[in-house]
Structure formats: C-alpha cells, structure tokens
Amino acid sequence: MAAVASVTAQAEIELAEGLSLQGFLDVSASSSDVAGKDTKSTAEIGEFEVDLLYGGDSINAQVDLNYTDTSGGVDLEQAFVGFSVSDQFSLKAGKFLSCIGFETFDVDGLYQYSAAASTVYPGHHTGLAGVYSGETFGVYGSVVDGTWSADGDTDDLGYEVQVFTSPAEGLTIKLGYATESGDAYDKSMVNLWAAYSVDALTVAAEYSSLEDFGANGSDGDAYMLMGNYAFTDTFNATLRFAHVDADWAEIDEFTISPRFVISDSVSVITEYRNRDFAGGGDEDLLAARVLYTF
C-alpha cells in the first residue's frame, strides 16, 4: 500500500555506517456511535513501530517491529533483504507489504485518521518480489505464501503484479492485480489509482474490482476520492468520499480530517467520519491522534 509520499516527516537515525533506525508512536482516542448500539470509546497506543534499515552498495534490508494495545505484544511486521541487480532492477525476499493500493498500511503515511471503507488491500506476506523502475514507467511482480492469508506455506500461493507510471511532474498512476489460489475458488482484485500533487494540493482517485472476495461468487466494486490541501505550513485538511457496492455490503462514507503540524516530528490528526449502510443504519466516528515520528 503506497501513497504518493508520506505526509509526515521522518528522519532516519544513523546507528552505524549503512545502518539506521526510524519509526513512530501513535496515541489515539476515538468515539464510535453506531445506530441502535452503545457508543464505543477508546484511548490507547494505536501503534508503536521501530524500523531497522540497512543499505549497502547492492544489498539492503529492513526489519519492522510493531506494538499495539490491541495485540498486547510485539509483532514482526516486515523482515526482508533486497538486492539491486542494476540501477533499474531489484529483487527482495522475506516478509514484506503488498504493492496494492493508494492508502498506506502504517498510520504515519495516511492523510487522515482512518483507512477508507474501500481500502480492502492485501497486507504483509512472505515471498519473492522483483521491480523494474524506469524514468517514467515501472513493473512490480511477486509470488507469496498467500496474498491475503499469508499462512506460511506454499499450498495456496498468491501473486501480485503492478505497472506504474509518472507521465508528468506530480502525477502518479498505478494499476495492480492480486490473486490467491484456493481449494474452491480464487480470490482476486484489480486496483487502479491515480494521484496528483501540485503546490499545496493533493488529489487522488481509486477504483477496485473485487472477485470471489470471501466467498465463491461474492463480487463487488469499491471507489475512493480524496483531496488534501495545506492551508499553511502548520495546518492542512483532508476530504474523502468512499463507496463500496458489493454482494456483502453497500456503504457510503464521508470523512473530514483536519491535521495540525506541531513540529517536524509531531502532528495532531483529528477526524469526523460517517458511514451509511444500505438497508438502514449508520456510524459516526470522532477521533484524534497524536503522532510522533523519528
């Protein structure tokens, strides 16, 4: 999952030659009001992550350690080694994040507090990936232990492929396909997104086509439109609309998320989000996050 660029500054801490550390701390509070149910409120460490990075002439490696109050422990989020075959082609092997999707997996790269209802990307999985990056065009491909399931075996392999291009300054377009083999059916999705940044404005649009998603014959479509504008160096705001039209759910979602930049490493992200479910019922979310990056 990759946006055009991280919206939070992150400076690596050099530990030794070629070895550095970076990460973030997310302290969050939220209140969710679902029609017909009791209000749910939380205050927690949403995520604390430390990333160790190594970069040599042709070898690089990364290990991400992640803690959340929900898990109650430290998880190995990523661990992979990469090899640069040439200036344009590289390989990596290990546990790494899917290439699919506009919105980032980690909260330090999000433009707002929450992920959209349309964000149904694969997560981390273990396998082998290769990427070719030209001046304006590139191709990514991977074979993994399960695109969504990541079950640690090779019984049901998953595959991802993505083509990406930057035909003009500030414009990025990515088209990806992900699939996972199963005993009864093959789960798959097509994902297309485009983002454009100019001066203080960033806009993005995304479409996902979902096939056999969770059950045989369970298909759907998901859309997202987003705009972020930096009014000043210390204040920006995001508006986002998402829609899911699928056999298992139909959702319309509207989000407004003001962000206050306290310093290069500290931001406060607030959000109001409304989800309207077809057939009745809606959900209102009020949330705030203090995000510290290092």
Characteristic terms for this protein:
294 residues; mainly beta; Porin; 16-stranded antiparallel β-barrel; 0% helix
Helix fraction, binned, reads under 10%
Query: Might you state the CATH topology name?
Result: Porin
Oligomeric grouping of the chains? single chain
**Major sheet: size, sense and barrel closure?**
16 strands, antiparallel, barrel
Helix tally equals 0
Overview of this protein structure:
This protein is mostly beta strands and 294 residues long. It has one domain (13-293): Porin. It contains no helices and 17 strands. It has a 16-stranded antiparallel β-barrel with strand order 2-3-4-5-6-7-8-9-10-11-12-13-14-15-16-17. Strand 15 and strand 16 form a beta hairpin.
